[in-house]
Amino acid sequence: MKRHLRFSRSFLYTSLLMTALAAGSSAYAAEDNSGADNLRFSGQLVAQPCIIDEGSESREINFNSVIEKSLYVYGRSYSRPFSLLLSECDLSVGKNVRISFDGQRSLALPDLLAITEGGETSGIAVGLETADGSPLALGKKTSDYQLKAGSNEIFFQAYIQAEPEALTKKNIVLGPFTAVATFYLEYE
């Protein structure tokens, strides 16, 4: 039996808001059914195999200083390791997990994260890869990670990739940058 869990607070809040708006608008459109059941809620309660460790719920991966010259020479930066810690895993509920990441995609490199607007920095994107260096495209699930009872630490890496046009024209704009991703867990 597959159990799918996705952890995105913004998705949850958006879903609740849309449900409330839809319910509110249909209540005005409905006939006056005083006393009738005209609002129903449904869902499904499921068990969660693991708890996302508090330190893994929201992470900041700091690249510190990335040297522009290395982007022009190698096309990308060094890989910066990070991990997600799942704790209190109950194997009777789920034995495997697949992880995917998503966020605002780079127009030039759609499998990578765009840097957020607001700064002057441009010509780069943030890439993700598995611990062994295999590319991890946005929206694509990893292969299964077999869980063990208790705590499980799953390792990934992030890197800065120069956009092809910025490399060709040698016009990477320097400065501070940020990118934001949401991770999703799918248990089996």
From TrEMBL:
Transmembrane segments: none annotated. Gene3D superfamilies: Fimbrial-type adhesion domain. It comes from the Bacteria. The keyword Coiled coil does not apply. Residues 1-29 form the signal peptide. GO terms for biological process: cell adhesion involved in single-species biofilm formation. Keywords: Signal. The keyword Signal applies. Residues 40-187 form the Fimbrial-type adhesion domain. InterPro entries: Adhesion_dom_fimbrial (IPR000259), Adhesion_dom_fimbrial_sf (IPR036937), Adhesion_dom_sf (IPR008966), Bact_Fimbrial_Adh_Pro (IPR050263). GO terms for cellular component: pilus. This is Exotoxin. It comes from Pantoea coffeiphila.
